[in-house]
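Record Cu(I)-responsive transcriptional regulator, 139 aa.
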Amino acid sequence: MNIGDVAALSGLPAKTIRYYEDIGLVKPLRSPNGYRAFRESDAHKLAFLGRARALGFSIEDCRNLLALYEDEDRASAEVKEIAEQHLERIDEKIAELREMRATLAHLVNACAGDHRPDCPILADLSTKTRDEERLEKTA
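=>
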């Protein structure tokens, strides 16, 4: 199967497939003229990777999950550990996004949005953060 065929089967763009090959996640065969020759198992791996990436797993997590998937002697506890760690990162990101949204909502509500030049949004964006102030003091 060529890259176009495996792209259609896996739902991934050819560019992504080439990238996954470059970083060693898939290893298609090569014909004597250098063309990639994908097997059905490669298409399956690529679909697996596409689903894992859609869930936000990192490339390294995908590499580990794929290795565990291919290991028939795996312990499901290893898979669960990777998924639990990823779930924790998602929960942290959600908390950060909620905090970000609350801050921005407060600023939007504080801004009159009229013809006057004063704007609490710009005022807040122009103030230094505690981290920036600490950096200046140590410099």
